[in-house]
């Protein structure tokens, strides 16, 4: 014999909690140090990093109405900071316009170093892995300091292109659009920046000299 159980209503699912509203008064306390470290790793001095963080927080405050809860406050602030960094590099790149004629190599022709079909390092000229020489935290820190010093010695336009491509990981098309470069000029600058960084690092005991 089967018995019918009394109907039992399932408990209703509680409504999803409303996302917490932004709290601008806490941004500096919650995210200031992290934003500052991120900026300082990408610009040459503490003053520039502080200014970038300040501009980021002010822009976020001005655009508070545009904040969408799909992303966290932290993510939103870092998106703004990355945009500020792109603007920073654009301003630096305009300090000295570099033409193709001005990019003539000071040493061996770039064909010695790069494959003609894809622009990659030739196998025999490929720099050794500098990271392989940095076994511990102290060595890694020294490596980063030397790399940063060498990057700062690049001409402003070279530095901007290198940073946007290899640090911020923008595409070639995005960089050309941001900096107003032609594709040909962009690739010449990339190659020059690589060679200049390689020579600087080798002078500081990192990597290996090019084969004769």
From TrEMBL:
Note the PROSITE patterns from the entry: SIGMA70_ECF
Q: Which domain of life is it from?
A: Bacteria
Tell whether DNA-binding is among the UniProt keywords: yes
A Pfam family of this chain: Sigma70_r4_2
Q: Name the Gene Ontology biological process terms.
A: DNA-templated transcription initiation
Tell me where the transmembrane regions lie.
Answer: none
Family, according to the entry, reads as follows: Belongs to the sigma-70 factor family. ECF subfamily.
NCBIfam families tied to this protein:
sigma70-ECF
The protein in question is named: RNA polymerase sigma factor
The source organism is: Hymenobacter chitinivorans DSM 11115
């Amino acid at each position: 014999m089967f018995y019918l159980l009394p109907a039992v209503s399932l408990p209703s699912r509680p409504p999803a909690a409303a996302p917490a509203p932004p709290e601008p008064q806490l941004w500096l306390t919650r995210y200031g140090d992290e934003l500052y470290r991120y900026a300082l790793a990408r610009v040459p001095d503490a003053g520039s990093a502080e200014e970038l963080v300040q501009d980021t927080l002010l822009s976020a405050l001005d655009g508070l109405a545009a904040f969408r809860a799909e992303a966290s406050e932290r993510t939103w602030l870092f998106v703004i900071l990355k945009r500020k960094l792109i603007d920073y590099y654009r301003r630096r790149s305009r300090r000295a316009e570099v033409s193709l004629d001005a990019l003539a190599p000071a040493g061996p022709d770039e064909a010695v170093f790069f494959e003609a079909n894809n622009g990659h390092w030739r196998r025999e000229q490929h720099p050794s892995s500098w990271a392989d020489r940095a076994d511990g935290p102290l060595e890694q820190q020294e490596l980063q300091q030397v790399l940063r010093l060498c990057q700062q010695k690049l001409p402003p336009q070279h530095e901007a292109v290198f940073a946007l491509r290899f640090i911020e990981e923008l595409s070639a098309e995005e960089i050309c659009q941001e900096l107003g470069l032609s594709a040909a000029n962009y690739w010449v600058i990339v190659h020059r920046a690589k060679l200049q960084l390689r020579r600087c690092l080798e002078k500081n005991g990192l990597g290996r000299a090019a084969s004769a």
